[in-house]
Automatic annotation (TrEMBL):
PROSITE patterns attached to this UniProt entry: GATASE_TYPE_1, GMPS_ATP_PPASE
Annotated residues for binding of ATP: S226, G227, G228, V229, D230, S231, A232
Name this protein carries in UniProt: GMP synthase [glutamine-hydrolyzing]
Organism superkingdom: Bacteria
The encoding gene: guaA
Keywords, alphabetical: ATP-binding, Glutamine amidotransferase, GMP biosynthesis, Ligase, Nucleotide-binding, Purine biosynthesis
UniProt-listed Enzyme Commission number(s): 6.3.5.2
Complex formation: Homodimer.
The keyword ATP-binding belongs to this UniProt entry's keyword annotation: yes
Catalytic residues (UniProt): C78 (nucleophile), H172, E174
Pathway it works in: Purine metabolism; GMP biosynthesis; GMP from XMP (L-Gln route): step 1/1
Domain GMPS ATP-PPase, residue spans: 199-391
Pfam family, one: GMP_synt_C
Amino acid sequence: SILIVDFGSQVTQLIARRVREAGVYSEIAPYTMAEAAFARMKPKGIILSGSPASVPDAGSPRAPQALFEAGIPILGICYGQQVMTEQLGGEVRPGHETGEGGEFGRAFLTVTQPCALFDGLWEVGERHQVWMSHGDKVTQFAPGFEIVATSDGAPFAVIADEARRFYGIQFHPEVVHTPDGAKLIANFTRHVCGLAGDWTMAEFRATKIAEIREQVGDGKVICGLSGGVDSAVAAVLIHEAIGEQLTCVFVDHGLMRQGEAEQVVSLFKGSYNIPLVHRDVEELFLSGLAEVTDPEAKRKFIGKTFIDVFEEEAKAIGGADFLAQGTLYPDVIESVSFTGGPSVTIKSHHNVGGLPARMNMKLVEPLRELFKDEVRELGRELGLPEAFVGRHPFPGPGLAIRIPGEVTKERCDILRKADAIYLEEIRNAGLYDAIWQAFAVLLPVKTVGVMGDARTYDSVCGLRAVTSTDGMTADVYPFDATFLTNVATRIVNEVRGINRVVYDYTSKPPGTIEWE
Ligand code: XMP
């Protein structure tokens, strides 16, 4: 296994992900707990993460010195390179002192020496694109190291001590903007640490099941299903671990897409035989949403009402000791601020986040370290149907935030029809999997049209489709005009209440993916 020592970088989980992709098991430990993790895991290699901190600052984090004396390979990334340099007797200076500033974004380095990290990948003399993000830099490397690659802004872009098998990389190999980054990390795990790379999602499943059993004991677990992939995968995994100790509650707020609620019920009750409480509370949600037009007010109402209903059901089944959630890693980073600064609330996300504190329950979150596509892979591993696992993400507040202005049952029904046509056309064109999210929105605007010689005065439907890897940034999906024209024609012809269709050409940022 590989121990990843975390110094608080936003992308530490990406390192773990690359290590998993190389077929190697890893664990992340905060630097304060790294020594204990090391003793427990007995890893074959260590990776030191980046950090928002600065090595020259007093009080900035350090790796346990013992790690450098353990005789196993170490890869330091960015801050990890700098802290290793400092702890082994080299020098790191703040960017402002060297007068050269930092390096941020795309950079090119030149390979100057062979190195085990470059095996079968990079040759001496070649130039390669990498992604830099640093202010400070190594100004004097530690004894035993030599430069193996260099860039204009970072003379010590990659340094290596092949005898001790210590490597320091100034750039970020874990991000996709370093095209060969995943291969560099795989070279570290395979060639340097000698790990075979045969770890799989099946083993992740087995490990998590053991962890869940250990955590829960003979306690009772309750899980809120949202209809989405994450909570479903979490529930199926937990059910496999503890069986009937798990009860799922599906708060059906009536703001789902067409056919979705039925699918959830048949999947859980029918295919998996998981104890499921299905509460149909459409009426409650729609009456509460009447005349609510402010996006945040909608989100807050839905979040709060969801919790109220969930709590009622939890009481009705006699309470539970644990609350299971399908929290993913991107949810974790969005909610934790390592820099300490207050971050602006763009939207109040509804994903039962308020529940644990209010209900005084401990959390079971088996997907916390995974990214969306890894959750899908785990879902397949657990036998969930492909059509369910591959489904586009859907926000907790559902269609309510895709109907700017007032939400009514009638408008939800209109939107469901338009959305279903749009998605059907996308599926038929074989584009569904190439798109991160595609959906229709129903605008609170009426425009004039003409159909069969008669005047119409109906709502406008907006279509959105984006590509993304994590929902944090997104590009507009470039449909061809014929496709969009066809969808527009079908929607106007088949959905009463819509007489005009527009396509949303805004990327994120500056737009968000959802309209509210
Ligand atoms: P935005 O609109 O913020 O959305 O660009 C980013 C991603 O998050 C989803 N989303 C939500 N998911 N609860 C959720 O579970 C929410 O309240 C929520 N709001 C937005 C959105 O669909 C996109 O995938």
